[in-house]
Amino acid sequence: MNEVLEYLKDCGTFYIATCEGSPPRVRPFGAVCAFEGKLYIVTNNQKKVYRQLKENGKVELCGMRDGTWIRVEGEVNIFCYDANISLSFFFKNFSFIT
After folding, report:
1. End-to-end alpha-carbon separation of the chain, Å?
2. pTM surpassing 0.70?
């Protein structure tokens, strides 16, 4: 898990493919972290990608750095931010691309 996390962080921008009916949808992402052995990405619950992930959690992540690439397939579980969880976790653990 740590190798995948570090690779995605080093990529800066990586891509997530989702499905909406028949055509796949691919988007760039930049924030990723691991917590308790799982990868976490961040998106807004008002975006189409969030709805697509709720409807079909099967995804592929793809990134490239230094002439090498990685592709990871998996299934997501939706985690919604809870106001009781400290934002310091996110700022400490996420790699934000600016």
Report:
1. 24
2. yes
